[in-house]
Write a structure and sequence with these properties.
2 domains, flat, two-stranded antiparallel sheet, alpha+beta, single chain
Length: about 110
């Protein structure tokens, strides 16, 4: 009976360790938001990002340009209105330079105007 308890404890410990390692790798690739892989996005072109994640929800163009993108984003959390208050929407914003993604950030609030 002691051997069975000992083996079960070791098995549980190994399973927990494996889950921690896998979770760590996932967190390393998705530090900003679980749905988007920052390591893939940063350094890639706009077309590659759209191919993988779909069309952007909002696009801001470089001043005096209708083709060069300054920043673009995906809605990650819609605004919610409830009895206890309102939560503000959140966006996963990607910033570009010369068509290449250079940084990502979670933006809270409206798009501005």
């Amino acid at each position: 009976m002691k051997i069975f308890k000992s083996n079960a404890f070791i098995s549980f410990g190994l399973a927990a360790l494996i889950l921690l390692i896998v979770g760590g790798f996932y967190w390393y690739d998705h530090p900003t938001h679980f749905k988007y892989n920052d390591r893939f996005i940063i350094g890639n072109q706009v077309s590659s990002i759209i191919d993988k994640y779909g069309k952007f929800d909002k696009i801001f163009y470089v001043e005096d340009s209708t083709t060069e993108i300054y920043s673009a984003g995906y809605i990650v959390e819609d605004a919610k209105v409830s009895f206890f208050g309102t939560s503000i929407e959140k966006y996963y914003m990607i910033y570009f330079k010369d068509g290449i993604a250079i940084s990502v950030v979670i933006m809270i609030g409206g798009w501005g105007g």
